[in-house]
Design goal:
Strand order of the largest sheet: 3-2-1-4-5
CATH class of one domain: Alpha Beta
Oligomer: single chain
Order of helices and strands: HEHEEHHEHHEH
Largest sheet: 5 strands, mixed
Helix content: 40-55%
Radius of gyration: 21 Å
Strand content: 15-25%
Number of strands: 5
Shape: elongated
CATH superfamily of one domain: Ribonuclease H-like superfamily/Ribonuclease H
CATH architecture of one domain: 2-Layer Sandwich
Number of helices: 7
CATH topology of one domain: Nucleotidyltransferase, domain 5
Structural class: alpha/beta
Distance between the termini: 19 Å
Amino acid sequence: MHVFIQHSLTVEQREDRGTSCQDIIAMADTDNFFLNKIITGEETWCFAFDPETERQSSEWVGETSLRPKKLKFQRSRIKIILINFFDSQGVVHKEFVPEGKTVNPEFYKGVKDRLLKSIQRVRPTAFFSRDFFLLHNNAPAHKASSVRQFLTPKQCYNVLSPPRTLQIYLRQTIFCASS
């Protein structure tokens, strides 16, 4: 579950967020299908489990024997980051960050490269017409100049991240439209 925590923003951050919101609203006003063109990304921590299948956990017991107790799953100490990109039609690309790897600009360029290959495979019409927008949060790796320089020659429009409340609204709208 995500929790919205307000914090103080600098004047520049407030202006950037206001501009981002105005840009998104302007695009949505001029294009009725704008929300359908957004491919948004999310990073989340996942705990690793090693569940047994029903068959693996089954045992032969006699008619009068007590059934064996089933063990409850314990959350693993192993945590891994899942990066997931989706649009109004569903998941476009997902990948786990390898254990011990940091999501820095160099790694994130690789993620964007694999994302573009996935878009080409699962949304070919949008890919070849470049009729989509990438939306991700303002983490330093996401907004690094090297990542922007990587996307520019590929003619990918990266929507600047709006305030968290608008981002949540867009994700809920996209998710609900795909349900």
